[in-house]
Every structure is written in structure tokens, then in C-alpha cells.
Amino acid sequence: MKKYVLAIDQGTTSSCAILFDKKGKPVCLARRGIKTFYPKPGWVEESAKDIWISVLEAITEVLEDSNVNPNEIDSIGITNQRETTVIWDKKTGQPVYNAIIWQSRQSNYLCEQRQSKKDFIFKRTGLLINPYFSASKIRFILDHIPNGQKRAEKGELLFGNIESWLIFKLTEGRVHATDVTNASRTMLLNIKDCKWDKELLKIWNIPMCILPEVHSSSSKFGYATALSCKVNIPICGAIGDQQSALFGQTCFSKGESKNTYGTGCFMLMNIGDKPMLSKNGLLTTVAWKINNKVTYALEASVFMGGATIQWLRDGLQVIKSARDSERYALKVKDTEGVYLVPAFVGLGTPYWDNDVRGAFFGLTRGTNKFHICRAALEGIAYQISDSLKVMQSETRIKLKSLKVDGGASANRFLMQFQSDILGVDVKLPVCVETTALGAAYMSGLSTGFFKDLKTISKNHKYQHIYKPKMKKADVDKKLKGWDTAVKAARTFKI
Ligand code: ADP
User: Fold this and answer.
1) Is residue 454, in this structure, part of any structural domain at all?
2) What confidence tens digit (pLDDT) does each residue in 171-202 have?
3) Is residue 308 within 6 Å of ligand 1 at its C-beta?
4) Quick check: 301 and 269 in contact, CB under 8 A?
5) In a domain, 335, yes or no
6) Domain encompassing residue 37
7) 20 to 30 A from 227, CA-CA: which of 64, 113, 215, 284?
8) CB distance 244 to 438 below 8 Å
9) Count of alpha carbons within 13 angstroms of residue 209, beta-carbon side
10) Test site for ligand 1: of 15, 16, 261, most ligand atoms within 8 A of the Cβ
């Protein structure tokens, strides 16, 4: 009897293996940290080999700790840090360069060289030309290893995002495949037909033969023969982390949205089966493909989410732990007019302003650290509100509620304030491992372990639903103050 699906959640800072049961409940979890290198300012890399080892160790540990017989595992679903780029030797399976992490800016110059193509690229991919996506990272690696381009053209090298790399290693080199959500973040996929695009490949001078085969997110990729267990478990799901969280949060209908409050914040809204393009800096991305049916999402990114709270802890040193921020914020009844615009690394959606820097406004002699903490948390919520405003006006869909996850979603003050200024319910699920859960669902749907979306929705329960409580006049006043603060911050240039 199959009782579990094994989800692998390969993130930027750690790799996690989780066993989920039929009710979508996590029964055992193992985690391994990953070392990040910063070889030069703005460069972010990890060892692809270490990523693979960390995944293997996490799987081994979860199998040992849970005492589960591998025979009872239905299948494996993979979710991963997106855009991160690995190139390896097809024969030896050895990486030819470190994995270049999504945050890395080292390939920025390659994007600048292609600025004239930005409209064409946006129309085909739904993405804004930026080193964040894989295409320029691939170009960078091929230019920085001996004979890179020649070896690629001869078919000696393979490219993959982390899910492709893991699938290749788990299947002992038998399968070189990706899923359509990850492929949609490479800047090489035509998001309308979900195929690799020859013209995009030409812009980046990348040979087609290094690219993985594009699969549905929920389909059989191959067998994990590399695991040292007697049965070969099939890999039946793969999906990028943010899309996976959208699915894990059961945002199955058009207009349903989730926000993940991690280091940064990522908001995705299900926009149905048509890839609409934004005029205001939102990205269009493939949410998932199941049974040949593609669902799309609009995506917004806020750079400083929980990282604002890390700054209060490590930079300003006004709190000892991230958790303190809630207690401190609640010690005062409001910020007394103080605003923090946390534009420490510029502002993402909808401003896309790289030059703006962080700023406090409205400080008085009466301002204390409690006001500062409260203003910092409110600053996170205001940024989410700005992005959701744009999403709602572009899609003409009025948000009914916001589903939330990620580290900072544990902050009750932040969640209540978010609900207040959005004027909608903010829903925190019982299972906060929504990213891994999405991958488990993808895999289990493909095998029949999970029957259908309806059954999955029934499993989904909330531990708390925050309801808006603030008076409309107060919300308007606060939002007006925030707008003024953002405008002022953006005019400050030295
Ligand atoms: P990531 O996946 O990006 O590493 P996580 O989802 O693990 O992020 O969340 C970690 C972030 O959440 C950190 O930036 C931390 O400051 C923030 N955080 C964690 N707990 C709280 C809390 N109770 N209140 C506010 N922020 C928090």
C-alpha cells in the first residue's frame, strides 16, 4: 500500500525532504543547510555537487527517522529555488562551474548588451530582461569556462535549473528534463506554446542541444535509481518554488493569490489559462501544467520582506530575535506618524527603482524602538499592498482573500495589519510547508495518489484567518502617508 509522497524542497539556504500522507499532512522532515559563496560583490554561487549531496542526505535521513518502508512511498515531487543555473558534463555528470544563484548579478552586463531586445523578450517570455533569469547566467558560464561555447555546440554539456540537475542525478544520468514552470523562468521559453524558442536562443547564442526536455509539472520524469533503497521510486512531479506554494495553498481558481513572507516576498495570482502581460512591472509566469492544461500566474516581488526584520536585529540591533518584533510593535498603539520605506536594495514591484534607498520619515523626540519596529513591519505590509493594488487593477479581479506562508507569516501583528490595510481576510494554513506540499500534490496527482483538486482542497485547513478590523478612514490616512513617504524617498538622490 502506498502511504506517502516524498517531497524534495531544494531552497537557497537549505534542502529539505518531507514525507506527506494522503491528507497532505507532513509526517517526517529532514533538512540540510547549504553554503553560499560570494566570490565578488554582487556574485552569489553555490556548489552544485553540495546541493546534490545535501538532497541525498536529507532523503536518507527522512527515510531512516520515519522508519518508512520505501515500498510505501508512491512517488517523488521536486520543488526548487528557481532560475539558479547549473551546467555539467554530459558524460561525467560533473558540474563545469558553480551553480549561479538567482540573486547573483554577475551576468548583468550581458543583459545590458541586449537591452534593445527587451520588448521582444517580454512579449515572448513575460519576463523583464534581468540577470535574475537563467539565460544570461548560461551565457556567462559558457563564456567563462575553457571552450564553453564549442563544447556546448558539440553536445558535450547540459544545462539545467536545480530540478533538472536533481532529476539527472537521481536517475543516474538517464533523464535530462525540466518542468514548464521552471522553464518559464529561463527567459528561453515561449510561454504561449510552452516550447523552447529559437529566436530567444539566438539572442543569447545558446545551442538548443544543452536544454532539457520540457515536461508537464505533473508527469513521470523517471525513476530515482540513485537512492540506496531496494525499490526505484518514480519522480512524478517538478515545479518551481513560488508556483509550488501557490498550488500548495490551493489557489486553483482564477484570482486566488498567495504571498510568501520570506527574506523577500513573492506574490502570485492565478490568472487562468491565458498569459496576460502586465504594463506595470508584474511578471507573467507559468503556474503549472497538469494534463496538458496550462495555468498562468502574475507575479510580484518585494526585495525586503523578513530581511527588514533581520536588519532590525543585526543592523540596528533593536531586537534580539525576529520574534521580538511582534511584541515590540504591540507595545505602542501606533507608529505616531513614523514610516520606514525599506528600500535598502531599491524597490521591486511596482516601482522597479534600483536607485532609491531606505528611509525613515516622521521621526520626533518621542520616537522609540517600539515605533521603529512597528513602522518596519508596517513597511513590509505596505509594499505587499502596493503590488496587490496593481495586480487587481490590471486583472480587474477584486481580491477576496490573501493566503500567506513563509517565516514572517508567523508574526500576528504583521498579518493583522496586512488584513487591515488590504481590507480582506488573510489566511494562514495549518501546514506552513506549502512549497513542499505543492510538489507532493503535483507528484501524487500524476499517479492517482491524490484523486483530484477537490480532494486536495478538502485537506486544506487554516490555523488562523485574520479579518480586517481597521476603520476605512484610518486605512486611507495610513496609505496616504505611505505614498508620500515612498515619493519622498524616491526623490532623495546624492
Ligand atoms: P527564506 O525561505 O527566504 O529563507 P523564511 O520563510 O525561512 O525565508 O523566513 C525567514 C525570514 O522571516 C527572515 O528574514 C526573518 O527575519 C523573518 N521572520 C521569521 N520569523 C519572524 C517573525 N516572527 N516576525 C517577523 N519576521 C520573521
Assistant:
1) no
2) 999 999 999 999 999 999 999 999 999 999 99
3) no
4) no
5) no
6) 4-242
7) 215
8) yes
9) 11
10) 261
